[in-house]
């Protein structure tokens, strides 16, 4: 046989093109795109459906240690299973450095957590919480050279946040070594002051989570992060951007020629602060994430920014905690104060179907933008392109055949994560993955999970071109 598998009658889309072809696959790699390919050991008829590069989720948290007695509901087993069923073929979760821990230890610990469990390929971002001289001068450069070429830093959360000078130091290492820094931008002191004031007034319900983290705290921190990036002269990615004022800062930076990238997530398109519930609504904890969902007007601005190119990537920020039980959202009691609830919501499986249905099918973004935001740009941002993120000869056969035109409603019973709810319950979708293929192997077909927990491989990442500083115009 010429091919292990031929996908026939595929209506392919990449970030730039649309074409009809048969796709020939050998050893998990695309080796031919053409008409009337022959000699496949196996054939799949796409029947003219969209065939897109598998999704890459560049922001998801699996089995990440926490400090407060909560446990993330998804490890690499259930997390990658859920991802695959939703059309995602690569995930990039986070190896968290605890304060006082070496980065190397954090990476080794996280490899142990992933070992033998992933059904799809994965890479790691680092989370740098303790940038000692040893970390900055030795560990970070060594780890970047080994393929950990992106890391996240926090401007909020006591156990994670960096001081301004530490942020500048970390950005300088990223510039020197060619790594991409992801910034969680919220002003910690604004949030702690507001939180104390709300608690003193007895305002402890989940809904006050949103009031304790207003847009201005995000706007200020976004501006500050951009300022440090300009100072050091290095590109950065502002992650999980929630609405207008932060987007204005990103647009302002981009308009001034700075390489500032933006990421947004489904929660800022499909949820609002009202989903945090009323005065005594414990279920509101299900939508507690940071930054919090805003309002309908902000949702529209986020859609517009996706359409106009202000955002480069669309990720889930899957941070899974169960509603019931003693180690999830209610770990500190059955009516917890909002500031004691684990931050984060699940979404690794619903990310693509939601954006395809409400973005592409409703005409807000086109099919090429969908591929760019959910796959190609993510691969480029983190040094996985062109092996991942496109349909091309030589690329991995990470492919999704999409079913469109039907109608269904998101229901947690249909999902494959380990979380006992989805914040997107009841939302209508009219596009979902029919078949997900990871390096040529079918891992999801017609509603059946067909993956195996040890088929996914760790992917060392190259230094991303998107992380390089802009050349000065005089030198061009
Ligand atoms: O609330 C959130 N987003 N939790 C996940 C961790 C993070 O900051 O991305
Ligand atoms: Zn040392
Ligand atoms: Zn974050
Ligand atoms: Zn996150």
UniProtKB/TrEMBL annotation:
Its cofactor is Zn(2+). Its EC number is 3.5.2.2. CDD domains: D-HYD. Keywords: Hydrolase, Metal-binding. Belongs to the metallo-dependent hydrolases superfamily. Hydantoinase/dihydropyrimidinase family. PANTHER family: COLLAPSIN RESPONSE MEDIATOR PROTEIN, HYDRANTOINASE/DIHYDROPYRIMIDINASE FAMILY MEMBER. This is Dihydropyrimidinase. The lineage of its organism: Bacteria, Pseudomonadati, Pseudomonadota, Gammaproteobacteria, Oceanospirillales.
């Amino acid at each position: 046989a010429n091919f292990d598998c031929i996908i026939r009658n595929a209506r392919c889309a990449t970030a730039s093109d649309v074409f009809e072809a048969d796709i020939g696959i050998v050893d998990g790699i695309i080796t031919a795109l053409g008409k009337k390919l022959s000699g496949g050991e196996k054939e799949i008829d796409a029947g003219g459906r969209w065939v897109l590069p598998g999704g890459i989720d560049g922001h998801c948290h699996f089995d990440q240690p926490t400090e407060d007695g909560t446990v993330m509901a998804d490890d690499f087993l259930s997390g990658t299973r859920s991802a695959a069923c939703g059309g995602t073929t690569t995930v990039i979760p986070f190896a968290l450095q605890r304060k006082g821990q070496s980065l190397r230890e954090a990476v080794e610990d996280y490899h142990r957590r992933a070992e033998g469990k992933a059904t799809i390929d994965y890479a790691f971002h680092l989370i740098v919480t303790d940038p000692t001289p040893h970390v900055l001068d030795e560990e970070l450069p060594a780890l970047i050279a080994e393929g950990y070429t992106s890391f996240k830093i926090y401007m909020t959360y006591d156990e994670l946040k960096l001081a301004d000078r530490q942020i500048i130091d970390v950005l300088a290492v990223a510039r020197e070594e060619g790594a991409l820094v992801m910034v969680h931008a919220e002003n910690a002191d604004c949030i702690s002051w507001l939180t104390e004031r709300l608690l003193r007034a007895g305002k402890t319900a989940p809904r006050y989570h949103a009031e304790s983290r207003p847009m201005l705290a995000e706007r200020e921190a976004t501006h500050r992060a951009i300022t440090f990036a300009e100072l050091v002269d290095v590109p950065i990615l502002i992650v999980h951007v929630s609405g207008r004022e932060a987007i204005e800062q990103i647009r302002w930076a981009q308009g001034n020629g700075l390489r500032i990238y933006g990421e947004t997530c489904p929660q800022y398109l499909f949820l609002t602060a009202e989903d945090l519930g009323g005065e005594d609504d414990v279920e509101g904890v299900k939508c507690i994430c940071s930054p919090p969902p805003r309002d309908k007007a902000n949702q529209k601005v986020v859609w517009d920014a996706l359409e106009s190119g202000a955002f480069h990537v669309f990720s889930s920020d899957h941070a899974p905690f169960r509603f019931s039980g003693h180690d999830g959202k209610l770990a500190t009691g059955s009516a917890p104060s909002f500031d004691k609830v684990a931050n984060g919501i699940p979404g690794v499986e619903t990310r693509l179907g939601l954006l395809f249905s409400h973005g592409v099918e409703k005409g807000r973004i086109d099919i090429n933008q969908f591929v760019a935001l959910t796959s190609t740009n993510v691969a480029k941002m983190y040094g996985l392109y062109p092996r991942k993120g496109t349909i091309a000869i030589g690329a991995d056969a990470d492919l999704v055949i999409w079913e469109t035109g039907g109608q269904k409603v998101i229901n947690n019973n249909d999902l494959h994560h380990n979380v006992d709810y989805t914040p997107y319950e009841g939302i209508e979708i009219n596009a979902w993955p029919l078949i997900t293929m990871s390096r040529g192997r079918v891992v999801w077909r017609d509603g059946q999970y067909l993956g195996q927990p040890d088929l996914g491989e760790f992917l060392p990442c190259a230094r991303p071109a998107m992380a390089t500083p802009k050349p000065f115009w005089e030198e061009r």
